[in-house]
Write a structure and sequence with these properties.
mainly beta; Jelly Rolls; 7-stranded antiparallel β-sheet; globular; disordered N terminus; binds zinc ion
């Protein structure tokens, strides 16, 4: 069938074309066979999990955007023509009753193709990226571990797959256990009157990177600032403004069917990650400023003393009592403040370290890599201040020692007003990570799920998304 490239043209060229066509058809048939084989394998993976014998796959594609940024549903992606960043628009698929995977032929996906002309880049604010060049991608792969009749796996912060009375399946995070009182305040979850704290791993699994993050180097410090791209209608024309203010709890990615968002709540909890060169005399301690809406912390890590200490001072309109703004604060501004100290485990304080400082859930968490060095109480867990802050972080000292700074914002749950729920016995209060886009236990028509509603706990089995 194949001829060598240098063969002279012959009357058999017509036959060659036919041969090629046959070859193509065969190749297509082979591809179809592979597809059918894969589909069969998927079907074989299905197992009847419950007494009602409804087959539940152990691996499926997420169909909604309610768990962003942990998991993504069906989406369109393109590369921003202005800055080259990935622009993502996720789509809710009406019903995930059968856990059928949505394909490009699904009505919701078709509707996107017909209605959406342009996409907005979250990184640079360019809002004319042509949607017709976007590539469709199916929802993330989620792996299911059946829980059976045991509720042992149903721990707080675990993600589980629930099925409601009408058979619709959804993926949500377990927040309230049976009998617990649940409240949402300032974006955080409170259980029985106490802020529900999480491990560093749990915090990181729901954190969203802030873009664009601006890193400014002064003579003796590095600032990490984030800016948010906001839309504003001025002079009757829509335009994009980049404002160094705050991030709302709106969907972390611009979304197709979430366009008109509800009231804006401001997020206040952040994690700052950076690389730190700990070599040399200057590397004997790490000194940083952490900013919260109405308070600034001076944090010092001493590897020789093996302690992390923090002192704080109040901020009013971004300024300390000395009159200096956060960006110019020095250790002197904290001289009179009470110091709290936590002992830290021994870590090798040499070379280049990946350090993170998180001001989350009313705590300051200092970590090197995955390892927590210390947790200090920020004392502001009950604060209602969720004001705009644009500079959550600064490193003092030899500025050149910090590099690759990135800022992440914590998940921010919408309370839908001041409310409290009591989880009935045998039931679970669940929330989606993408609070503005999630229908979960906050809504009376959804309510809490019983253990019978639980199909299993979910883990990611993505082949490609996580970096
Ligand atoms: Zn861009």
């Amino acid at each position: 069938m194949h001829k060598s490239a240098d063969a002279p043209p012959t009357s058999r060229d017509a036959d060659k074309t036919t041969d090629d066509r046959v070859f193509r058809v065969r190749r297509l048939a082979f591809a179809s066979f592979i597809l059918v084989f894969a589909a069969t394998a998927l079907v074989l993976a299905f197992r009847a999990q419950r007494a009602d014998r409804v087959a539940i796959p152990t691996v499926f594609r997420l169909q909604s955007r309610s768990m962003e940024p942990s998991w993504f549903g069906p989406r369109f992606e393109l590369t921003c023509p202005e800055c080259g960043e990935r622009v993502v628009m996720t789509i809710d698929v009406a019903s995930s009753k059968s856990l059928t995977r949505s394909t490009e032929a699904s009505p919701e996906i078709q509707a996107f193709r017909e209605q959406v002309r342009v996409m907005t880049c979250r990184n640079c604010g360019y809002d004319r990226a042509p949607a017709d060049s976007a590539v469709f991608r199916e929802g993330d792969l989620v792996c299911l571990t059946p829980v059976g009749s045991s509720s042992r796996l149903l721990e707080r912060w675990r993600v589980a797959i629930f099925r409601d009375s009408s058979g619709v399946c959804s993926l949500k995070r377990i927040v309230g256990l049976p009998g617990e009182r649940v409240a949402i305040r300032n974006g955080d979850v409170w259980i029985d009157g106490k802020l529900a704290r999480r491990s560093l791993e749990e915090i990181r699994s729901v954190a969203t990177e802030m873009r664009p993050t601006v890193v400014t180097r002064g003579a003796d410090r590095v600032y990490a600032t984030y800016v948010v791209v906001s839309r504003a209608a001025k002079d009757g024309t829509e335009r994009v403004e980049t404002t160094p203010s705050a991030i709302s709890n709106e969907s972390p990615t611009p979304s197709f069917n979430g366009g008109a968002s509800s009231s804006v709540e401001l997020a206040r909890d952040f994690e700052t990650r950076f690389r730190w060169n700990a070599d040399g005399a200057e590397g004997e301690r790490l000194v940083a400023l952490v900013r919260r809406p109405d308070r600034a912390w001076f944090v010092e890590y001493s590897p020789t003393k093996r302690t992390v200490s923090a002192r704080s001072t109040a901020l009013r309109d971004g300024r300390a009592s000395s009159g200096r703004p956060f960006e110019l604060l020095t250790p002197d501004d904290f001289a009179d403040a009470k110091e709290s100290t936590a002992p830290t485990p021994r870590v090798a304080w040499r070379g280049t370290l990946d350090v993170s400082l998180s001001a989350v859930d009313g705590e300051l968490i200092v970590a090197v890599g995955e390892r927590e060095l210390a947790r200090l109480d920020l004392g502001d867990a009950a604060s209602t201040a969720t004001a705009a802050i644009s500079t959550p972080f600064a490193i003092l000292g030899d500025a050149s020692r910090a590099s690759s700074m990135r800022i992440f914002r914590d998940v921010h749950y919408s309370s839908l007003g001041e409310r409290e729920w009591t989880t009935p016995p045998g039931r679970y209060f669940v929330l989606g990570d993408n609070s503005p886009a999630s229908r979960d236990s906050r809504f009376p028509d959804v309510g809490e799920f019983s253990v019978e509603n639980v199909i299993g706990v979910a883990t990611t089995c993505n082949e490609d998304r996580r970096e």
